[in-house]
Amino acid sequence: MTLLIGALTIGFILSLLALGVLISFRIYSFSDITAEGSITLGAAVAATLLTKGTNPLLATGIAVFAGMLAGACTGILHTRFKINGLLSGILVMTALYSINLHIMGRSNVPLLSATTLMTWAEGAGNGLFGGAENINVAGWEVSARELSVLGFSFLAAALVGIILYIFFRTDLGTAMRATGDNPQMVRAMGISDGNMIVFGLAVSNGLVALSGALLAQYQGFSDVQMGIGMLVWGLASVIIGEALVGLKQLNLLITGALMGSVLFRLLVAIALRWGMDPNDLKLITAVFVFLALIVPGLIAKAGWKKVGVRNA
Amino acid sequence: MTAVRYFRHLILGLLLIAATSSVLLFSDWSQRRSGDTKIPRIAVLQHASQAALDDGVSGMIDELAAQGFIDGKTAVIQKFNAQNDLTTANSIAKQVVSGDFDLILTSSTLSMQTVANANKNRGVKHVFGIVADPLHAGVGINPENGADHPPYMTGIGSLISVERVLQQAKELYPGLSKIGLAWNAGESNSLTYTKATRAACMKLGLTLLEANVESTSAVSEAANSLVSRGADALLLTGDVTVLVASDAVAAAAKRGHIPAFSVIPPNVKKGMLFDIGANFYEVGRQIGDLAAKVLRGTNPKDVPVVNSVPEKIAINTTALAGLKAPWKLPESFLARAALLIDEAGIHDKAAPVQSTRNYKIGIVYFAPEEGADTALRGLADGLKSQGLEEGKNLQVLRSHAQGEIANIPALLQNYDSQDVDLIVTLTTPCLTGACSVVKKKNVVFHYVYDPIAAGAGKSREDHLPNITGVGSFPPVNDTVTTIQQLVPGVKKVGTLYNSSEANSRKVMSVAREAFLKAGIQLEEVTVTSSSEVLQAAQTLQSRGIQAMWVTGDNTALQGFTAIGKAARDAKLPLIINDPEFTGKGAAVAVGLGWYESGLAAGKIAGRVLHGEKPAAIPFEEVAVQQLVINDDAVARLNLRVPPAMSQKATHVKDTK
């Protein structure tokens, strides 16, 4: 049960990463590698501030802002200096490595005694559950603290998803989406597509940094290497999510990314729980992702549900 | 799009999430508990580390486990040991009566008394044992009637029947008439035994010769006097003063050609003819049984305090030789002996008290590599020294993070929620992860430079309560000295490392100072991945260094062949901290034997598995130095190795 709760919690936290990747990868068709640096950036900024006793909400907010700056840098390199999108991401990600080390002052910042958002969540849960240490869920002893943290991460993911949905339906959000679909049309309407890209990447990396900040507070430390490989998993979550919902419609894409991230973490947890040879873990994970991608299609073929791909 | 259609598109995803969650929950089915049972919390107290008390405690715990109260799974069992200190015993007693325990078990009279005293107004359920005479211990039990006692406590007394021992002696030699007894009138327990002996002698028609002793040194004289007064045999009861000098009693008996026997096994090893005493492990099991009943709802009030002595008989047939009276050891008596000594040696029929439980540990490390493998070998041997062997009574689960930090929490959570008894971590990031993620299980770490920097505690004694282990800081100062010896007059040394590795940064901060003190300039180049190592090594050489030094930086070690090659091309001596890599181009390794760190961690892991609390085990620092010299490289560079250094080093050649 702990493992299930842990997998769901990490799934919700990393769904923010998936949402960030969704913006750059799906809305802008921009392969933004900055994410691997900005997730660590978020973690590094939040962790460093938290150890100095900053208010957790403020620390997380500053982490998001730092992530947005990083995304904006990538956007500016791409639009102003005409550097290939992939390369501008690589440049910023590489620079962030050193920056993150400078922010933390060392490679790993433990958060054991710091007050974090998770501490707050535990406190809130403590009030909710009447101070009980453990709660019985269908026969399993579940730590009230873990449950509160899970609830918090779910609320955070859901809230961000809803805000994102509302945002993309505003004029600004619509213009941003249009930039991804048809930049020429956007320019014809007198909107700077370059600014839109810069802003979009900033929002994307802000979300990624938020994910990193929450992850650091959940796992209790920030490490300079924690971003490595993250982009791949973010992409996997987005694509699994698309396969799950079938339609490329904004609200479904957002929900899909969320579900994809959670499902992906659950699959990893199963691979772990079954205690297979540790060297095979990645192989098993790859097989699971493969299955997650083709199963919806197979089910559709079997006629259980008609999945049509069309743009809304 | 309507809400209904929106949700229809989510059905598949939600179903799959539900399905995978169910699979995960199903794998955890065994951890399910029925809703209304709370895990009982049990405190087990003993006054000192002494064979009889230890046997009693392991009996209690084994029986509780056999009845379904398994520590860490279906019960929380916390052990306390006052280490023979009465003040400690009192504070432990206060702590446990106010510590939200459902039941307190005590082993030894003093533990019973301290708890009974602290518990007077609390009334926590208390089951005692390994007590000679609870009725007269002043804890509120009616000496006339064992059923009349404080309603919250009950237990088992184990007053060994002297009458039973004397009767046995009479069976072995029907002509027995005079028994000699040396005892210390200053011991209250001894007085109880002596009174019982007097009564038994009266009943059996024996004459009791008594000799008082005041100290251990007087025992020999007292025993001799008993022999000269015509005793047919000497008896030894639970008198601690005399027990300590039991060889003197046996020797006196031997000189007088009479046998000696006791109520405390195994004094036969000292030359006594036989011992009939209590099997305290069995007593422990009876107490465990009683405890289980109380946990299931039996009211201690209804359980009378009884005396129960499961017998343990030990016989030494060699003591028959030279006796003047015709003592006989019938087969039927010999057959009942748990311990038998004859000409062929000692035969211990009861297997040594050893835990028959099977343990399960989970090992978490960062990625497979040579140093970690060496440490794991040490760990296995350390566990073996504690009687825990993989495949026999130990199940070992292994997992590594595939070199990705993000995987660490899930690996640890996986073990934290499974039924492993202990988690063992290697490497700093895994330890840091364990500090925040592992909540329910104990953790033993090793293969870590600096556990304090990793966040495991404030000091070696004051650390997270569920975490302990072994740190191993590399020998930086010796590295500097070695470089100075190899390259006389050295002024500039170059090093390369990955600044994102906590271990390397820590070593560098110490090294900078050490080199500065030695008047050597340290040139540093940092890398971020193993592919940059070769270039970094070449950069260093262009800075006019006289020697190169590489510490246990994981990134540098991954690209070590490149460093070795660069050093060889530039004819620079390369000094490293990892002996495993010496043959690959280094001149000298001043390193740590990771095997020794693993060995120490294995021993700690064994102690924790056997019930010790990690909170009470300070971090150990095990840094066994290992000096390895690569003779090929030394010859190539025309280095002069001081004979003293050469002597204590292991020598290797280039790895082909």
Give an account of the 3D structure.
The complex is a heterodimer of chains A (312) and B (656). Chain A has 312 residues and is mainly alpha-helical. Chain A has one domain (2-227). In chain A, 74% of the residues lie in helices and 4% in strands. Chain A has twelve helices and four strands. Chain A has helices at residues 2-27, 34-51, 56-79, 85-104, 117-128, 144-168, 171-181, 183-188, 193-219, 230-245, 250-273, 281-301, and strands spanning 108-110, 134-137, 140-143, 221-223. In chain A, the strands form two sheets. Chain A has a two-stranded antiparallel ribbon. A two-stranded antiparallel ribbon of chain A has the order 2-3. In chain A, β2 and β3 (140-143) form a beta hairpin. In chain A, α1 runs antiparallel to α9 and α1 (2-27) crosses α10 (230-245). The longest helix of chain A is centred in the middle third of the chain and has 27 residues, at 193-219. Chain A is globular. Chain B contains 22 helices and 27 strands. Chain B has an eight-stranded mixed sheet, sandwiched between helices. Chain B has four domains: 41-158 and 282-307, Rossmann fold (3-Layer(aba) Sandwich), CATH 3.40.50.2300; 162-277 and 310-348, Rossmann fold (3-Layer(aba) Sandwich), CATH 3.40.50; 359-473 and 597-621, 3-Layer(aba) Sandwich (Rossmann fold); 476-591 and 624-652, Response regulator (Rossmann fold). In chain B, α3 (86-97) packs across α4 and α13 crosses α14. The longest helix of chain B has 25 residues, at 3-27. The termini of chain B are far apart. By secondary structure, chain B is of the alpha/beta class. Classes of the chains: A mainly alpha (312), B alpha/beta (656). At the A-B interface, α1, β3, α9, α10 and α11 of A face α1, β16, α13 and α14 of B.
